[in-house]
Amino acid sequence: MTARILLLGGTGDALTIARTLGPAHVYSLAGLGRVPADLACTVRVGGFGGAEGLTRFLADEHIALVFDATHPYAAQISANASRACEAANVPYWALRRAPWQPQAGDNWRMVSGWAGVTEALAPFARPLFTLGREPLAHLDEVPESQHWTIRCLDAHPGHARARVIDARGPFTPEGERTLFTGARIDVVVSKNSGGAATEAKLAVAREMGLPVVMMRRPTLPDAQREFASAQAALEALAHYTQRSFNA
Is Oxidoreductase one of the keywords UniProt gives this record (predicted)? Predict the structure, then answer.
């Protein structure tokens, strides 16, 4: 019998992995963004109730392996998963995508948290936010001297000083140039997510001489096995499922 895998998702890499999982396995999403309808595995939407709730879920559903493919900034989810796996004596594996590294010509301004972002943006007029949904909670804080462009996965109303774009990567340099020029962007705000899908914004910022306000990554728990790419994870999971099926 195949040992059940719980895949914690929320990234494009997680969806790539989920598409290879059969009906015995569970793909868990927090509930933001679009829920895929073409997966063979079970899709679970919503939280678990912290580490304690996840520990119970692992026992009740007979989960044999947790694979964490959440966003690099979803630190609380990863912390809960690590604690739950330790309590339930279940292996904890994780996809730890390498962060981007500044290149020659980059002007990165490293910050921690929303307060650091707003302080760093004070000299600028037309920032592009690529932080996901977080800026939507601050639309009533847009300074009169600024106009925000916010790109995230979900449609959301903006207002006179904020435009919200719902779009999903991968993004191309050509598309980013068009956006930057049309919106008169003078600074980019980003998380250091790593990966190729959204890296074009950094290349275009470098090309156009624009600064990037970059949020530092949070500290994530160690996993028993860590993978730098979806392909490496897929190979390990395929070997794991085959081994457990033959056991």
Answer: yes
